[in-house]
Amino acid sequence: MENKQKAVARNDSSSSSSSTDENDFRHPVHKKFHLFGRHKSLHAALGGGKLADVLLWRNKQISGGLFAGATVIWFLFEWIGYHLLTFICHSLIVSLAILFFWSNLSLFVNKSLIEFPKIELPEELWTQVALLLRDQFTCAFGIFREVASGNDLKKFLYAIFGLWIISIVGRWFNLLTLVYIIFVVLLTVPFFYEKYDDQVDAYGEMAIKELRRQYSQLDEKVLQKLPIPFLKDIKQD
């Protein structure tokens, strides 16, 4: 009797394990889609340091100060017509004049002298900026070399299309306005993307699927019919 009960228990356990395995096989875990193929948080993807804190407005004073300063500089140069060298000289003249007269007047009004703070730029922040720029330039040169080698038509078309869009945008804005727009985008897009990442990732997934579908149709109807040697080699492989 005990042997029969053990056999029944083994059969139940084996059937339950097999059913769970079948359920796991029938219902695979769906991996959540993220833009740019990232597998970690946006803060970690941006480096996880002070630069990421600034871009994601974790330190609102620094982020707000940079945003306000860039806006003031853009307004002075774009609307008032200031030149860079003139702006720097006038700023230094006003600052030195105020500090010089205040230091001398403090002797007559029994005020303590101004103690000028020792300004040290944060080494970690500028190191991260330099490393980020180095990585981006290295990646850009690598992509340029790969596209120019003539082995990937898809990347070649992407590069031509991207440069064509940039050339059109360059007609609408001058260099200063374009730099200011890029700066504002860097200070706003990551912040809002982190806040609404689920919605953005969902729309991004649909957009990427649609682009891939359009490209597959273009590849089937046009690109595969072009007399390009390496396309035939790829098709044979």
From TrEMBL:
PROSITE patterns linked to this entry: RETICULON (PS50845)
One Pfam family in the UniProt entry: Reticulon
Subcellular location: Endoplasmic reticulum membrane
Chain intervals for the UniProt region annotation (Disordered): 1-25
Gene Ontology BP terms: response to bacterium
Entry keywords, A to Z: Endoplasmic reticulum, Membrane, Transmembrane, Transmembrane helix
Main localisation: endoplasmic reticulum
Topology relative to the membrane: Multi-pass membrane protein
Listed transmembrane segments: 61-77, 84-105, 179-196
Superkingdom of origin organism: Eukaryota
Domain Reticulon: 51-227
A GO CC term assigned to this protein in UniProt: endoplasmic reticulum membrane
Protein name: Reticulon-like protein
Organism from which the protein derives: Nicotiana tabacum
Gene label: LOC107771076
